[in-house]
Write a structure and sequence with these properties.
Length: 212
C-alpha cells in the first residue's frame, strides 16, 4: 500500500504537501507526532472520509476503524453490534470468548464499562472483512492498567489474523509495545521511520520527538 505526493489543507492550513508513505502488508505501523501534525487526517484520508490530492495505491475500499471512543450502536446488544459488520454467528461467539464478554452478549453498551466497550470496538473491527485496520488513539482515554490489558488483547487477536494496521498514538511506550514499524510525523513530513526492534530505537525516537 502506498501514498504518493499527498496534499491536504484546511483553508490556509497546509497539513500535507508532497507526502509519501509506504505501508507494509500484515504489519502494524505506528504513527507518532505532536497534536495537529496530521495523524488523524492521515487516517481519514486512508478511510475515504476526507478528500485529498495525490495518489493512493493498494488501499482497500473497506477498512476497519477503531476510534478513541468505542462508537457502538446504543440500541443494539453487544452481539448485535458485532453482527452489524457482517460477522458469522460462529465467529462472533468465538470472538466474544476471546474478549471475555460472552456473559455480556445480550447487554447494551450503556451497561458496559469503558474498557468493555472498547473490547467490543476492537472485536467489531477484526470481525469485518477488511484487510486494513485504522486505529486512532484507541486506548488513550483509559487508565494505564486497562490500556496494557487491551494492548495485550489487541496483539493476541492480531496474531491470529495479522491484518495490516495503522495505529495512531501520542504515547511512545505504546508505539514500541504495539508497532513493528514506527514513523514520526513533523510539519507534514516523516521525520523518522524506524523498526521498533531496531537497536536503540527508543533513544532515536525520543531524540526525534524532542528535537524541533
Amino acid at each position: 500500500m502506498k501514498i504518493e505526493n499527498l496534499r491536504k489543507s484546511y483553508g490556509d492550513q497546509v497539513v500535507f504537501d508532497g507526502f509519501d508513505l509506504e505501508i507494509t502488508e500484515r504489519e502494524i505501523l505506528c504513527v507518532l507526532g505532536p497534536s495537529g501534525v496530521g495523524k488523524t487526517t492521515l487516517l481519514k484520508i486512508l478511510s475515504g472520509l476526507t478528500p485529498y490530492e495525490g495518489r493512493l495505491d493498494g488501499i482497500p475500499e473497506r477498512v476497519g476503524y477503531i476510534f478513541q471512543e468505542p462508537r457502538l450502536i446504543p440500541n443494539l446488544t453487544v452481539k448485535e453490534n458485532l453482527a452489524f459488520t457482517g460477522g458469522e454467528a460462529q465467529k462472533i461467539e468465538k470472538m466474544l470468548e476471546e474478549i471475555g464478554l460472552s456473559a455480556h452478549a445480550e447487554k447494551r453498551p450503556k451497561m458496559l464499562s469503558g474498557g468493555e466497550k472498547q473490547r467490543v470496538a476492537i472485536a467489531r473491527a477484526f470481525l469485518s472483512d477488511s484487510p486494513l485496520l485504522l486505529m486512532d488513539e484507541p486506548f488513550s482515554a483509559l487508565d494505564t492498567a486497562l490500556k496494557m490489558r487491551l494492548t495485550d488483547l489487541f496483539l493476541r487477536i492480531w496474531e491470529k489474523e495479522k491484518r495490516t494496521a495503522v495505529f495512531v498514538t501520542h504515547d511512545l511506550g505504546e508505539a514500541l509495545a504495539v508497532g513493528h514499524r514506527i514513523v514520526v510525523l513533523k510539519k507534514g513530513s516523516i521525520a523518522l521511520d524506524i523498526r521498533a526492534d531496531e537497536e536503540n530505537a527508543k533513544e532515536k525516537l525520543l531524540e526525534c520527538l524532542v528535537t524541533e
